[in-house]
């Protein structure tokens, strides 16, 4: 199925989308910090990924990715980094929120 | 040369250096390690699926060939570096933003 990589990315995002409704996390109060850190991470890792793919470090199975490619990488691979950057910040802030509450008790 | 191995190790080193340069010292925070543990718990099924299917194929000349389940060892370093850099930058911009 050509949408499999895309579905993996969606599955990764399911948790924060559910849990973010339950916890008032501070990441949404800092849109500039969130966008800046995501932008820098994406810039660095997209560059690495484009070069690595061009040098043949890894390839993508055309059976499981969409046909749309940018600089040789499937669109899903471009989406991978903003998704992971977002979920990293989300997880970190969720841990902080929960442990902060536990420490106060 | 095993370029992926080299770059993966380098990325972890640079991520840890960035943490020192920006004085975020995120590696000393308990929340960082708990979050990293949770991320890795979710990384194993997702990265595992990508490499088991396989959706992503690795060039045998560019990595050590050591895999945990189906996941190349280098992917763990790659993930650790990626998550660390993200959280260092986030911490830096949040604390710098609130101080200004």
Structural features, described:
The complex is a heterodimer of chains A (105) and B (100). Chain A has 105 residues and is mostly helical. Chain A has one domain (4-104). Chain A has three helices and three strands, in the order ααβββα. Chain A has helices spanning 4-19, 31-54, 75-104; strands at 58-60, 69-70, 73-74. In chain A, strands 2-3 form a two-stranded antiparallel ribbon. In chain A, helix 2 crosses helix 3 (75-104). Chain A is elongated and about 50 Å long. In chain A, 30% of the residues are buried. Chain B is mainly α. Chain B has one domain. Helix content of chain B is 69%, strand content 7%. Chain B has three helices and three strands. Chain B has a two-stranded antiparallel sheet. In chain B, strand 2 and strand 3 (71-72) form a beta hairpin. In chain B, helix 1 (3-21) packs parallel to helix 3 and helix 2 (30-52) crosses helix 3 (73-99). The longest helix of chain B has 27 residues, at 73-99. Chain B is globular. The N and C termini of chain B lie far apart (46 Å). The model of chain B has no long low-confidence stretch (mean pLDDT 95). The A-B interface holds A 4-5, 8, 11-12, 15, 26-27, 30, 32-34, 36-38, 40-41, 44-45, 48, 52, 55-61, 64-65, 81, 84-85, 87-89, 91-92, 94-96, 99 and B 3-4, 7, 11, 30-32, 34-35, 38-39, 42, 46, 49-50, 53-59, 62-63, 82-83, 85-87, 89-90, 92-94, 97.
Features:
heterodimer, A: mainly alpha, B: 3 strands, 69% helix, 7% strand
SSE topology sketch:
The complex is a heterodimer of chains A (105) and B (100).
Chain A: H1 4-19, H2 31-54, E1 58-60, E2 69-70, E3 73-74, H3 75-104
Antiparallel strand pairs in A: 2-3
Chain B: H1 3-21, H2 30-52, E1 56-58, E2 67-68, E3 71-72, H3 73-99
Antiparallel strand pairs in B: 2-3
Helix pairs in contact in B: 1-3, 2-3
């Amino acid at each position: 199925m050509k949408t499999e990589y895309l579905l993996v990315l969606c599955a990764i995002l399911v948790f924060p989308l559910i849990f973010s409704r339950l916890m008032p996390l501070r990441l949404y109060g800092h849109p500039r910090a969130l966008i800046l850190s995501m932008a820098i991470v994406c810039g660095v890792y997209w560059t690495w990924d484009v070069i690595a793919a061009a040098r043949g470090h890894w390839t993508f199975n055309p059976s499981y990715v969409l046909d749309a490619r940018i600089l040789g990488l499937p669109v899903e691979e471009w989406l991978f980094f903003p998704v992971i950057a977002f979920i990293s910040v989300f997880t970190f802030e969720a841990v902080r929120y929960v442990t902060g509450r536990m420490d106060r008790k | 040369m095993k370029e992926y191995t080299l770059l993966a190790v380098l990325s972890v080193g640079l991520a840890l250096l960035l943490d020192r340069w920006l004085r975020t010292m995120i590696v000393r925070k308990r929340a960082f390690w708990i979050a990293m543990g949770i991320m890795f718990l979710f990384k194993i099924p997702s990265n595992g699926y990508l490499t088991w299917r396989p959706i992503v194929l690795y060039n045998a000349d560019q990595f050590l060939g050591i895999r945990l389940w189906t996941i190349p060892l280098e992917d763990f370093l790659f993930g650790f570096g990626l998550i660390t850099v993200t959280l260092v930058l986030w911490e830096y911009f949040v604390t710098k933003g609130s101080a200004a």
